[in-house]
């Protein structure tokens, strides 16, 4: 186990919010972190060497089947004894880096390590997780490819659940990592997002035996008697680990992930949020097929962030974020504006994107086939990785060149900017979703007022705002557009009872606006739609 001290690397964009400029968990407040590397959390059977005649190889025994380990990031000189845990799941299309045709696909990727560092500098603990890889994209039929990929996602879910149990076991036996087991968050990039979303929603045998998950003979593509259930329990070739502990989590953050079927998502599932490029060439933004140019369709009817968040919102699973979604911090404003901009456009599958949906930040980069603008890689390093894996240098060069076609303006500064946008958007919602702000219910943020009403909403003329005060307080009302510009300000001074105010909207363009109330120094924000 190796421990290193990492210096301060990036400063996030400063912004003012109800949380303050130096709020832990929102902004970077620590200048350095430690990283403990290569901690084994589990062992299981891998299929990564199946093409070489080794159908099941135990992890950690050959280079193609690496050990199931994590790297642990935490801030230096932290005074908190227990901190929220973020489990970071890297990208890679469930194949090893370079073998997957990409210069990314490892927990050592630039973006993955930078995200882990930035979370740790905000005060979180972070486990950067290795999980099992292996599927056959060259399988002869679409059904075979779908079965192979589905089982890869499934095995990775099992590994991640074992990791959660590992940390809960450690907590019960001294808590050497200093985590808070009531606040465990999964954050996944690309294929890691698939793992996180599946982890949070697959909990019934029927869900993995839907008609589209059966073979031509109506047999399940995932046979739990062979590879175990979704918790990693049972199965002839599954190794059970860290049993006797819960694998419950409390929130999911997905970066370009997808869900095998929307029916998996049910009321009561954990809150979830996402960033996603509507131009993603593999993981559709709405619902459609997963296709890779070189091999064709892999699997059908996979749902991306837009449809997943739309349903999660409708089910009430994301109600906890309502207060944050109505705020006017720069990241929320940017997400609102981006959602307006992509409405009416078509995603990679040709589906027209509908009206804006909360809890997903669409990244429209200007590149027509971009899916992960946060990625950065170096061509020389990519070639060296290929050589270290016993592959020809040309294969590393090809991975570099082919990925530049999707991300032609790839750079470190671009990567850092999108990481900033992602964590700026995620962290306010992690704070709310896991109650790090200390607000036991959403209504408590409005504790100075009650019965807030804005009507009619939407409106095409005037809007009436009314509310009752529970205590004597100063009141300032503002109407703000999504760029943050204040259009109307009304200072009521100290008020002891109720307020009813008419806002003339006839001079404003149609769109979404924010009605901001400052009551005794506390800011409450609601949306107003002008038609």
Characterize this entry briefly.
This protein is of the alpha/beta class.
Describe the structure.
The chain has two domains: 432 residues, no CATH class; 84 residues, Sandwich (Immunoglobulin-like), CATH 2.60.40.2550. Helices cover 24% and strands 26% of the residues. The strands form five sheets. A nine-stranded mixed beta sheet has the order 1-2-5-7-6-8-9-10-13, sandwiched between helices. It has a four-stranded antiparallel beta sheet with strand order 17-16-19-20, with no helix packed on it. The N terminus is likely disordered.
Helix and strand topology:
Blueprint lengths: L1 E5 L26 E10 L2 E2 L10 E2 L9 E8 L7 E7 L20 H12 L3 E5 L12 H31 L6 E11 L1 H11 L22 H4 L23 E5 L16 E5 L10 E6 L3 E8 L1 H11 L6 H4 L4 H13 L17 E3 L16 H10 L4 H12 L7 H22 L15 E7 L6 E8 L3 E9 L4 E10 L2 E7 L6 E9 L2 E9 L1
